[in-house]
Amino acid sequence: MIRSSSNLAKLTRPRIFGAIPRERLFALLDEARARPVTWISGPPGAGKTTLVAGYLDTRKVVGIWYQVDLGDGDPASFFYYLGQAAPGHRRKSLQSLPVLTPEYLPDLAGFARRYFRVLYARLPVGAAIVLDNYQEVPVESGFHQVVAVAVEELPENVGLIAISRGSPPQQFARPLAARQITMIEWDDLRLRLEETRTIASAEGAIQERTVRRLHDQCGGWAGGLRLILEEFRRIGVVSSVEHPQTLDGVFNYFADQVFEAAPPETQRFLLRSAVLPRMTPKVVQIVTDEPNTAKILEDLYRRHLFVDRRVGEELTYQYHALFRAFLLARAEEVLTKDEISRLQRRAAALLESLGLPDDAVSIYLSTQDWDAVALLIGMHAVRFLAQGRGQTLREWIA
Q1: So what's the pLDDT on residue 91?
Q2: Contact 335, 271 (CB under 8 A)
């Protein structure tokens, strides 16, 4: 029997493999904890998540790690899953976290205040709440109002860390003006030459002039450096990349280089597995019919090639958002429409059977399988309404 661990992965701190501690930035984070909120912003592949996970591990900071996704645009979903991550959420002796049912919606801010006061009372002194991939929720969502209230209610002994590709939304104007937020931005995250040297040297002896060229080519971009090193190990040459500051273009360029350098069976696996938003080896093996699934995913993760790993009840992997977008686009060029459709149907049905309707619906909606979506709505409507997640149902119906 395959157990579902995707939702647990949403609430699990990433395990960092082979990352170099960035003491310069750790010192910035130490200083930042004097304020309630730390906002870390930078482009994809800048090392934001790795930095925070490594810092919390090194400093032995406990708390909640929450991976934000599009579904959190429904504040009730955010409250529900955050409650699942709360310490002692199954203990009857503790005050229960309230549920955002419809009668509370007219005063969302008031409900949020009550909710976070109960939540913070459960957290130990010095705890941190991390909101990773904050940019995933649209700016017009009530989610941002909820998090702004969470900031206002923060006690002195608890901090919030937001990891995003962008700046704080307008709902954070008040804490920004009150200097309650420490900003760590792209210029802070850029690798310094000595950091590039340390990372490159960990891969083996590399000449100083090669290190300097690596540094110039990656433009301080940690993800780009990993990719250039991968290519350097393969062919012994540091490629010339134009305009490294345009990171999305560089990312896609190297994604293409990594894909083309992979064996044909790995390429096929990547294209077929990309239909899944989150992956456990057993689930991916069923969807892709690839017997070496666990080995391929672990190899990609250990080589820092666009794969994140979460350790919950089961190992769960997730492709970097831009890499997955690249794979899905390439799949449309390489695979037939019938093959893609079969993969999507198989993946969605499996996710549905595992009790992951949110992930299943996202696939059914992308394939316009309205009958399957309607069936899932009928199956889960009562439970979702009891959890206060009526907005999610309305979005599915729309």
Answers
A1: 57
A2: yes
